[in-house]
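Regression check, shikimate-3-phosphate case 426:
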Amino acid sequence: MSSKKIEPVKKLVGQMTLPGDKSISHRAVMIGSIAEGQTRVKNLLDCDDCNYTIRAFRDMGITIKKEGKHTIISGKGLRELKKPKSAIDVGNSGTSMRILAGILAGQKFDSTMEGDTSLSNRPMMRVVEPLLQMGAGITTATGGFPPLSISGGAVKPINYRMPIPSAQVKSAILFAGLYADGTTIIEEAFKSRDHTERMLKYYGADIKVDGLKISLKGGPELKGRSFEVPGDVSSASFFMAGAVLLQDSKIRIDGVGINPTRAGILEVMSRMGAKINVLNKRGMFEPVGDVEVEASRTKGIVIEESDIPGIIDELPIIFVLASLSKGKTVIKGAEELRVKETDRINSMKENLERMGARIEVNKDEITIEGVESLKGSANLRSFGDHRTCMAMAIAALTAKGASVIDDAGCITKSFPEFFDVLEKLK
Ligand code: S3P
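Current build output:
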């Protein structure tokens, strides 16, 4: 798919389930591969990023098979991965590269990870620094960018205070900590998504979480498990916002992950005045619910720095919601958006301004003054970024007039079915 034309619609209506959560799917493949015995996962996300993680573990000798809706991972234990024949290519997947670095740091072999042009411009020192402290040998390209060359071996536990909130970095340290002799301690300033902690515990790791402090004792083998991946709340957020913004809409998304460290969008949308209801709360080690959303008149709010980790991937769609809400929305401390697949402050500002939105950026503080409506634009740009593309597709649905988004094929990174699901809700 190259460019995508989007005509405005009046409403979104329907009930659906969504493909599995991307973060949880990456972790399922990683933890399943280094656990002993079989892991059987239902609803693992089939997207470019997760497929890079699957390929990486296949290249390291792990058998991963699809059986209908299930993925079967034949885990070999913590230290039984084999040296890949060539450099591991993780494409555009920052999550694969950063988290895998922690696992590779504990292996008996040396390895190299590389990515595409966009990933090759994303910062890696945030993960390299703590792993160096743990005793791993890692080199990067000049400036701390990929490729990463990792000299695996003996790693030691560390006590690490996270300088930036990042679940990827936290997860890399925890994975390396599995290989260390002793207790690794991580302290966060703001809580980032805790999928790794929950899954490691479910697999039998010796891990304790006390507020913002996590302790993990290295050593014990993990045991293969079975579970279902909840629907991805980040993917859900696009349809939720569409339903809020389009008059007469009502949608229900069943089986969505509602982990409070991840699903801050539910709280933010409620605070903006969206009619949103979570029903039938359930789940194993990850909480799940059915989310019902109706068209609502929303208002601007203040989003604090401490809210950011819980909505980091939903900020592009929050830009859209805020642009069409009554009054002013202020977003503080969102500078991490600048180092995502693209600079998402720029990408969203540029696109939404083309549609008539009013957005001011002062360093890392973003102020969005709501407007009555957006106008269509034939020049929307995805910047090769899946979430910019999907957020702008929703903005375009609400607009007065048709829009065109360039390079819309990038959605396969996380949600290949996005436009098909959208079509069914119209
Ligand atoms: C992710 C963590 C976040 C998020 C990314 C997925 C994860 O990144 O933006 O899409 O699965 O751990 P950071 O760790 O850089 O905040």
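Comparison notes: The chain has 13 helices and 22 strands. The two ends are 21 Å apart (CA to CA). No diff flagged against the previous build.
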